[in-house]
UniProtKB/TrEMBL annotation:
Residue span, Thiamine phosphate synthase/TenI domain: 16-205
Organism: Xylanimonas allomyrinae
Protein name: Thiamine-phosphate synthase
GO biological process: thiamine biosynthetic process; thiamine diphosphate biosynthetic process
A GO MF label: thiamine-phosphate diphosphorylase activity
Gene: thiE
PANTHER family with a match to the protein in the record: THIAMINE-PHOSPHATE PYROPHOSPHORYLASE (PTHR20857), THIAMINE-PHOSPHATE SYNTHASE (PTHR20857:SF15)
Residues reported in the UniProt entry to bind 4-amino-2-methyl-5-(diphosphooxymethyl)pyrimidine: N79, S118, K150
Gene3D superfamilies: Aldolase class I (3.20.20.70)
EC number in record: 2.5.1.3
Keyword Metal-binding attributed: yes
Domain of life: Bacteria
Reactions accelerated catalytically: 2-(2-carboxy-4-methylthiazol-5-yl)ethyl phosphate + 4-amino-2-methyl-5-(diphosphooxymethyl)pyrimidine + 2 H(+) = thiamine phosphate + CO2 + diphosphate; 4-methyl-5-(2-phosphooxyethyl)-thiazole + 4-amino-2-methyl-5-(diphosphooxymethyl)pyrimidine + H(+) = thiamine phosphate + diphosphate; 2-[(2R,5Z)-2-carboxy-4-methylthiazol-5(2H)-ylidene]ethyl phosphate + 4-amino-2-methyl-5-(diphosphooxymethyl)pyrimidine + 2 H(+) = thiamine phosphate + CO2 + diphosphate
Family named by the database record: Belongs to the thiamine-phosphate synthase family.
InterPro entries, per database record: Aldolase_TIM, ThiamineP_synth_sf, ThiamineP_synth_TenI, TMP_synthase
Length: 225
């Protein structure tokens, strides 16, 4: 969402959307190194996600990531923590169904920040479409496949479930859908065919010895048709 007269934020391209996991990256310094490498490989957006970090740890890690991402022109959003997103001057936030409601999150973030919402069902996508215009920029849809990166993840919906939700979202006028959950480079052409505008990943990048090559493989797979 953009408002005339306010400074433009970094453009949000969700094609290869890296979500960070501090444990899989080997600690906060590993997160920074992974993000730097992934961006060099072709990651187009980054979400800072660490449900276990203290508020101060999360803000410090976010500031370190912004120092890497701003010069690269890659946006950073913060999972769940609107307060931390605002405190560090991130590009926006991503909320789940149990987090702060999107209308309140939008009010706090202002009109030009990026705001994403997780959905797992066509019903949740329809509810997202019914929010006031300008509330949401993106839906995170999944988990498409079984994931071990999120505690208490919902059941996997598969590529067919993703296709059903992207279709419902489009029909209802909801924001575009990025796929998430257990995704590997080989999945990306099918996700694209199912209507997703990108793939969000943790372990396909954070769990690998060469995150730059992993991100490059995802970027290449996203372009392939
Ligand atoms: N939300 C739904 S699945 C998931 C999140 C945060 C984890 C994705 O991680 P991975 O390793 O790509 O399955
Ligand atoms: Mg959350």
């Amino acid at each position: 969402v953009r408002t005339v007269g306010q400074a433009a934020r970094t453009a949000f391209d969700p094609a290869v959307y890296l979500v960070t996991d501090t444990t899989q990256c080997g600690g906060p310094a590993g997160v920074v190194a992974t993000v730097r490498a992934a961006v060099a490989g072709g990651a187009t957006a980054v979400q800072l996600r660490d449900p276990d970090a203290s508020t101060r740890e999360l803000a410090e890690l976010g500031a370190a990531l912004l120092a890497v991402l701003r010069p690269a022109g890659v946006p950073l959003v913060v999972n769940d923590r609107i307060d931390v997103a605002l405190a560090i001057g991130a590009d926006g936030a991503h909320v789940g169904q149990g987090d702060l409601d999107p209308v309140t999150a939008r009010r706090l973030l202002g009109p030009e920040a990026h705001l994403g919402l997780s959905v797992s069902t066509t019903r949740e996508a329809a509810a997202a479409a019914a929010l006031p215009p300008g509330t949401l920029d993106l839906l995170g849809v999944g988990p498409v496949r079984t994931t071990t990166s999120k505690a208490n993840a919902r059941p996997a919906i598969g590529v067919d479930g993703l296709a059903a939700i992207t279709a419902a979202a489009r029909a209802a006028g909801a924001p575009p859908c990025v796929a998430i959950g257990g995704l590997r480079a080989g999945d990306l052409p099918a996700l694209r065919a199912a209507g997703a505008v990108g793939a969000a990943v943790i372990s396909a990048v954070c769990g690998t010895p060469d995150p730059r090559a992993a991100a490059a493989a995802l970027a290449a797979a996203w372009q392939a048709r």
